[in-house]
């Protein structure tokens, strides 16, 4: 019976190394160069970070989601999940390990669908960590609903010309290129009306109208761009994959990424739980430690239960992806992980913040940032509500209606059937009375 909850010993050694490395070498970067993860390296940052990347490569942990032909290890989703749990503690860690979003997903689709020239121009520098990219898909009037996208790409001789607006194009301000989803055949159905294009960020006609920040960040200093594409002219070979393939390409990109997000969220939530427990053991009020207060004990128990359940579910989902090698077959579980993820992080971070009192709501502790991150997770890669509809439909497909007036589990009928099944024994029993 193949049923095991232990990690392969050799890989566990790698995870232990990564855990210590992130704690001792990477997490300090979050305090010195905050919000600069997606700024191209130069000067002091390059002198510090390039050697860290080299140490990761020496351990065979650089961009492990990619196959050996692209410089990675070709790790399955289960191994990736365990590593991403560690990397989730630090905003800088994915950069140092060569697996930061959105670049990982963008690299994956270029590797799958890109031409030889596109891979040379965009993929290798992306894998080397020498450039950043932006995924420019959602629109102000449509959000993530592709049926309402209006940005158009029209063929003009040997070129394509793009016009329209995009919203929340993360890291566009520092990206070397953008992957733009645009409508190329308005008359086609939703799954075939759009195409993807690789667009250098210095192409004339691209205007970042403003860089939208998250709640609490200064106006126009965020990392999520509102972009107007005005007569942006690109050559025909900028098309990624084939015309009308954007929807299929996007699905290739999103499946594994949602599991990576989930495991990084688990690492972040574990950090919040650790801070909650430390505070409970350290703080004394009203004659006893916080850890002796039943309310706080309840916070700790609820947080541990939420995190443990979610972690096992995500790891099981990653295992199923590896087993079946088919994202569609595991679609229900991937969507479920996406549903649960924001609530787990929000609840644990909120409890930890509460136990820290006034200090917890200040910018000297990271809890509000975690809570804002939970809100973002509820919208990124599709709103939670959309994923709930997906899960419900998938679950309902596994069930059938009854034409009977009474439900299948109606007790009087089942009781009568049970009595009929054992009638000879019941008759003997009644005759003996």
TrEMBL record:
Keywords: FAD, Flavoprotein, Oxidoreductase. Residues 247-396 form the Acyl-CoA dehydrogenase/oxidase C-terminal domain. Its cofactor is FAD. Signal peptide: none annotated. Residues 135-219 form the Acyl-CoA oxidase/dehydrogenase middle domain. Residues 12-130 form the Acyl-CoA dehydrogenase/oxidase N-terminal domain. It comes from the Bacteria. It holds the Pfam family Acyl-CoA_dh_M. Belongs to the acyl-CoA dehydrogenase family. Homodimer. This is Acyl-CoA dehydrogenase family protein.
